[in-house]
Amino acid sequence: MNIAVLLSGGVDSSVVVHLLCEQGYRPSLFYIKIGRDDTDYMDCSAEEDWEMASAVARRYGLPLEMIDLQKEYWEQVAAYAIDKIRCGLTPNPDVMCNRFIKFGCFEQKVGKEFDFTATGHYATIVNANGKVWLGTAADPVKDQTDFLAQIDYLQVSKLMFPLGGLMKREVRDIARTAGLPTARRRDSQGICFLGKINYNDFVRRFLGEREGDIVEWETGKKLGTHRGYWFHTIGQRKGLGLSGGPWFVVRKDVADNVLYVS
């Protein structure tokens, strides 16, 4: 069986490589580059990720190739996120990345040459009634099916999730026992293309700042000001700077740049 592995440089995808090799497979490894080189507002920690991925590839004597999808990622994911934020919505770029980049553009360019593509996502593949379904992972905390919810049937049918039956602590234990270079590397947090860049700084770069009122929903009383509705999302508590709370954002008036709280 011909298998491609999406290797990110993190512990999860590294353990996927280890498990497949333990089963006798010799997968081909691919690192997807998405962070743009021509900006000062995006930081994917790509250099460190590539070094870690390369170390894992060397450990198992497997080929590793970098697939540059910067342009596709910007057009289909990052620009989408900015547009949704401008409209007052709360986008999920990771959902779009899985649908259009990892299992879209990569599949069209490279994955189509392989029987399956394996990733370090915490999910499972379920075969039932002659069909292939996306299933939840054994670890309810790490389960990532919410981020995979928009991939289609054809995409699901070509995927492998070797970590789906494992708890996160088991994955860490496997990595330490195997002596993987990524064994003690911390999990990435936040939006995939931002890396160490602050989310608000990224939004500010494109949408700027515009002062608006923070208003209590029940009374209409002005409680304070904000720097732009696009920095806030429904249900948000942190960062409002209000006393006497806790206060939560319950509505946004995009046209008048007003945050309603309760």
Describe what you observe in this structure.
- The structure is a single chain.
- The chain is of the alpha/beta class.
- It folds into two domains: 3-178, Rossmann fold, CATH 3.40.50.620; 209-261, Roll (SH3 type barrels).
- 32% of the residues lie in helices and 19% in strands.
- The chain contains seven helices and eleven strands.
- A hairpin with a 5-residue loop joins strand 8 and strand 9 (222-226).
- Helix 1 (11-22) crosses helix 6 and helix 3 packs antiparallel against helix 4 (93-109).
- The mean pLDDT is 91.
Please outline the helices and strands:
Elements: E1 3-6, H1 11-22, E2 28-33, H2 46-60, E3 64-68, H3 70-86, H4 93-109, E4 116-118, E5 124-128, E6 131-135, H5 153-156, E7 159-160, H6 168-178, H7 199-207, E8 212-216, E9 222-226, E10 249-253, E11 258-261
Parallel strand pairs: 1-2, 1-4, 2-3, 4-7, 8-11
Antiparallel strand pairs: 5-6, 8-9, 10-11
Helix pairs in contact: 1-6, 3-4
Taking Cα atoms only, what radius of gyration do you get, to the nearest Å? 21 Å
**Envelope shape:** elongated
Spatial arrangement of strands, main beta sheet: 3-2-1-4-7
Count up the helices: 7
Terminal CA distance: 56 Å
Largest sheet: 5 strands, parallel
Structural class of the helices, strands and pairings?
A: alpha/beta
Would you identify the CATH architecture of the largest domain? Answer: 3-Layer(aba) Sandwich
CATH class wording of the largest domain: Alpha Beta
Report the sheet-strand fraction.
Answer: 15-25%
The CATH topology annotation of the largest domain reads as Rossmann fold
Number of structural domains: 2
Whole-number mean pLDDT:
91
Write down the secondary-structure element order: EHEHEHHEEEHEHHEEEE
Give the fraction of residues assigned to helices. Answer: 25-40%
Low-confidence regions? none
Query: What is the strand tally?
Result: 11
Assigned CATH superfamily of the largest domain = HUPs
